Amino acid sequence: MKAIVVNEQRQLIWTDVPEPVLRDDQVIIDVHATGVNRADLFQRDGKYPSPPGWPPYMGLEVSGVISEAPSNSSWRVGEKVCALLGGGGYAQRVAVPSGLVLSAPANLPLEQAAALPEVFATAYLNLVIEAGLKSGETVFIQAGASGVGIAAIHLAMAIGAKVVTSVGSEEKAKFLRQLGADVVINRKTTDIASVLKEHPIDVALDCVAGPSLGSYLECMSTHGRWVIISTLGGERAELPLRTILRRGLKIFGSTLRSRSDQEKSDILFRLESEIWPRIEQGQIAPVIYKMLPLEKAEEAHAILRDSKNTGKVILTQKLA
């Protein structure tokens, strides 16, 4: 089979790779579409390798059709599914532990189903499981127009939280207001901390961190929970320790990819039980920025690297 791999010059090459080998606890999926995530760029740059046991090439979420399954599996050949991966999604086929596979929502084409597993699992893990976001609380979501950001906004609105979010352009701000976010901050024209002071934050989902983190923590409510999922703004920050102590703030560091397969399976079970019905009823819909053939992964990476996207970029293939 073929896959996109990264050569020594960090270029993307469409080349032959070994076929996946089926194990008893897995299924093999013929990949129809792959969601592109910023983690793919980190992996390409050598900063975020695949966990042990996963293919060395990129791709954290796919949709497709099951082509092989053990006789004792609950999954059947021919079922349309989407799946969460540790790597290997930029390929024609991939072997996936059965617990990381989800039925593709019946109302969505497979291309859109590929936009669900990674971003919604990340948002659910960090907003619901880690931070315990509740109805009536205020949540601050950095980079709200990203794939994870939009998923987090959907989840927060479903919970009944007030949504404050930041973006990098007025076009993105307008889109998120139409989506239903309560307060949208254009970070290019407005000081984020000055707005947060008017809307004290109970929970934050932060993919930026960096030097501004300290000033944002000053805007948190008592017992606020700040979850850092990436450090796009930098790895160092000066924190207001007295404020953290006085208000009883909690600061988490959290990544989905480092979780065990069992932890991921538990997250997906809850996600499918609580969120999939909302998707199938049309209450929540993935936002797709652009679909490209898998061979144009370079263009997809350029879109994310330049932060041009509002929503997900999807790489597609034609099933044989």
Describe the structure.
The protein is of the alpha/beta class and 320 residues long. It is globular. Helix content is 29%, strand content 27%. It has helices at residues 38-44, 110-113, 117-130, 147-159, 170-179, 192-196, 213-217, 241-247, 261-274, 276-280, 297-305, and strands spanning 2-6, 12-16, 26-36, 61-68, 80-84, 93-97, 101-103, 138-141, 162-167, 183-186, 201-206, 220-228, 250-253, 288-293, 312-316. It has eleven helices and 15 strands.
Write the CATH homologous superfamily of the largest domain. Medium-chain alcohol dehydrogenases, catalytic domain
Termini separation comes to 12 Å
Q: What is the chain-wise order of helices and strands? A: EEEHEEEEHHEHEHEHEHEHEHHEHE
**CATH architecture descriptor text of the largest domain:** Alpha-Beta Complex
Tally of alpha and pi helices: 11
